[in-house]
Give the backbone structure.
Amino acid sequence: MNVAVLSGGVGGARFLRGVISVVDPGNVSIIGNVADDIEVLGLRVSPDLDSILYTLTGLGDEERGWGRADESWRALETVAELGGEDWFSLGDRDIGLHLVRTELLRAGVPLSEATARIAQALGLRAHLLPATDDPLRTFLETPAGTFPFQTWFVERGHRDEVDAVHYTGAPDAMPAPGVLEALAAADVILFAPSNPYVSIGPILAVAAIRQALESRTVPCVAVSPLVGGRAVKGPADRMLARIAGGTTPAHVASCYEGLIDVLVVDESDERVELPGDTKIVVTHTLMTDLDASRRLAEVALA
Ligand code: GDP
Ligand code: CA
């Protein structure tokens, strides 16, 4: 069975760990969000791709929930001492990866190829594909102004309510090599329980990806990132309440209109009918450990 999964960072990675424990990783293609990518201190950082890389290769820091395990912060301490830009946390080991990626990009290697090389070096067997090699970036429109994603999320601690989300570069963004092929070869397409607006949304903003999903001939199953109408972590619930008008499964499904056949939601969520032919599947969706991730992946794949 071939599986294609659209994914953001931390929530997506947790789910993907379950997916690759029930499907041969060689048959799993991950289409990752790159609209959070940022240039920090001259380094190109791809937070969502890296969360996936670290989590799936066992290098991630489980307690912190992001970044690498056994991390140190000496380089960033020096940056702070020198009065450099230090609001974006970069660990020493993490910086090593960003150095390699940045160097490859500077030499003209596309992000998809750079990602494949890094993934192979780390021993990842699943295919990790950035949604696009082109510049695609999320901007948040808030009452305090419009901010690039990481300014809003990290620097301002996502305290600003979001009125609208924009994806710059989307009209010209082409799917990265392998993305359309992965969707065409998939027996089932999954949307990880990632933030619909800032993780899955930018992937769907790539027109050719959206078209491929609209004309799919295989089932597409999304997993809701909400548990009991609340985000497990992060601003997804507040964004849904303000932009979609609520946090029920119907509001989550409205983000994926015409694109999904099934929405998997938590037992603690409101029982509602979804519009159209979209079916709802109720299960335990809190991924407290690998077993829970695996069971959730099994339900989504079934
Ligand atoms: P990010 O890119 O690192 O912000 O991560 P994602 O967008 O992939 O995932 C963030 C979303 O994951 C949040 O909206 C969380 O509510 C959701 N999430 C995290 N853990 C869980 C979980 O155990 N179960 C479910 N259903 N959602 C989760
Ligand atoms: Ca992200």
About this structure: Residues 101 and 107 are 10 Å apart (CA to CA). Residues 8-12, 14, 48, 51, 192-195, 199, 224-225, 227, 231-234, 236, 285-287 surround guanosine-5'-diphosphate (ligand 1) (CB under 6 Å). The chain has a mean pLDDT of 97.
